[in-house]
């Protein structure tokens, strides 16, 4: 049967229908589970066990999940696959966390059932996409349910190939290699093993962001499981408030079960890293500043500049990219003229470049990431570099420490792209940029060194922010994907955006499921932890 109707009538009917299903503030979770196809006997057994107070609520929740989904999808602590999955995180801090069980859903309705069972049993959960958030509890949860999205790995091109629908269990390497055969790409991560989920919901900077913007601004639609277990299709046209909130709002609004991203034509490109010693630092900082200021004149070029302390040597690593397979782009000439001790730049595929950058980010070590934002300024860049080396020299004997201060530019073209499709939640605007985005990142081996490593990083942030304020170069924005657990990300989007995000959360999550029952990572108020 075919439905004949005027376009506007159809869309308004669908719109109303979507709205009506979207906000049942007090949807009955028991009924919702029945609607998802969960047997009533399983639900009564859940309620019965919860009334008994023993075993723990999370054991009850995990047993219930096991009854609904079976052994392949729900892993308990004594199972071999549990041991593998619970340690499959980038940082050691996250790999050491031990949930009561791990749930591996295959589709949106499974995720819905998890959200409902968590609420009924009052057992907290965490969600893992690529597992690259550094601090403990970000995507793994002690004594709760960890939801590992690895079975949701669909990658599907639309008929016209203009969009790709991507499951949240994908890492960018798999996305890029799949799209490569069509000579297409999407905006995503620059390191192979990063997950689609965390990167996109926090912002997402790509090699091609000067051309196409950040990942969150390339999303055409999100499929989201909300607090009441409803599966919503969210876009600029449908639930536009939630669409705005998900562009930078992280895990506060629902579990995204599908990201539909805009594709663009992309073949071979050029890129790699150049290592430069201390005499070249002034030239490298000048090149960084000039490329940042001139981004609009050739947006094919990209840069990531790291200062690091490796084997008692101060080193700069300039990771450079060009979107076309051209080795001598004029805009990169200033960088290329600086004498280097190592150079891996060459013409290669996007996937290949992400593998190259993956190799310098091994997993299994202790890790910390920190972020700050400043107005792009050459002297400020030098100041950041100097403070970094000064503070790091005090902890240089920490075991296997590799500390770096990684600098990028949030360019004017990137900021302009943020205004597309109703804008995002980050609170940045083109008229106040371009910005230096500082990412402090350290890897080390021993937990005994945690306190002083964290303190050194906190000091660098505190001192550079204080100096930037003095020079009128500070911006309060803290990039979620690079922030430490001691930084207040959502408040940094500005008071007005934080208020809006909270209002949208009240609408789609009136009982604060994603604040209370998914406690990890950056919540709507404050920072996850306080540095003692
Ligand atoms: C080596 C390395 C390279 C990096 N390169 C880049 C880069 O090029 N560009 C850039 O912008 N950032 C980069 N980052 C930062 C990166 O974006 C963040 O670490 C991000 O959190 C990683 O996403 P993930 O899915 O791997 O992490 P996860 O730890 O799996 O997730 C992070 C958070 O997002 C939530 N989340 C994940 N998926 C979903 C979902 N589907 N629905 C709801 N919530 C979800 C999780 O619950 C968790 O709280 C890099 C980080 C590392 C360690
Ligand atoms: C919720 O739904 C179940 C199943 O339909 C029903 O038995 C129960 O009474 C409902 N609870 C409330 C509070 O309405
Ligand atoms: C990325 O690096 C990790 C850790 O070294 C490694 O286990 C993984 O296989 C790499 N992934 C890709 C896609 O290259």
TrEMBL record:
Pfam families, per the entry: FAD_binding_4 (PF01565)
Organism (species): Aaosphaeria arxii CBS 175.79
Matches recorded under Gene3D superfamilies: 3.30.465.10, 3.40.462.20, Uridine Diphospho-n-acetylenolpyruvylglucosamine Reductase, domain 2
Signal peptide region: 1-22
Entry-linked SUPFAM superfamilies: FAD-binding/transporter-associated domain-like
Protein name: FAD-binding domain-containing protein
Keywords from the UniProt entry: FAD, Flavoprotein, Oxidoreductase, Signal
Family as reported in the entry's similarity comment: Belongs to the oxygen-dependent FAD-linked oxidoreductase family.
Taxonomic lineage of the native organism: Eukaryota, Fungi, Dikarya, Ascomycota, Pezizomycotina
Residues in FAD-binding PCMH-type domain copies: 95-266
Keyword presence, Oxidoreductase: yes
GO MF annotation: an example: FAD binding
